[in-house]
Amino acid sequence: MIEKTIIADPSFLGALIGAIITGLIAILVMWRQIVYDKKKKYKEDNRNFVKVLTLIESEGERFYSLGKMIVEFDYDENHMTLESLERMEKVRKNISRVDHNHVPQKYYADFINFQSTLEALLKNIKAGINKEHGSEGNYEMLKGFKNDIDSFVTTKQELLKKYKF
Questions:
Q1: Domain count across the chain
Q2: The pTM is what?
Q3: Within 6-135, where are the H helices?
Q4: Tell me, what CATH number does 48's domain have?
Q5: Cβ distance 100 to 108 under 8 Å?
Q6: Are the CB atoms for 141 and 117 separated by under 8 Å?
Q7: Residue 1: inside a domain, yes or no?
Q8: N or C: which end of the chain has fewer CB within 10 A?
């Protein structure tokens, strides 16, 4: 009589081959799910960044126009100027509330620089209103601020084209 070994048993070989095939399919499905989740997260991160860029665009333009108006009117301390200054402070607060997790590392330094410029401009404009100093550097600083806004707008347009949100 021929001795049957466990490897020669057809039911064992079938189970072994079935387990290997099932394991490979499970690994393939898991790998595809991981790739899908990464793509989904990347797209969601970019969508959140576009929201941040939209806020920067709208609030930054508002800040720029208010600041330009105050500088062009040579810091005339009237009700309109003080009201504009309050609006500028609100814009600063709105931009400072941005969740930094929504800003990709590639743009983080630019974002921090943008916030610093905004803070410095507000401080300088307040000082100009209080007649602590003149408006010499503020107009140039406003132009640089406008360039920062335009840079973020360009980035936003590129992302919108790339991902078609």
A1: 1
A2: 0.67
A3: 10-72, 79-96, 105-129
A4: 1.20.120
A5: yes
A6: yes
A7: no
A8: N
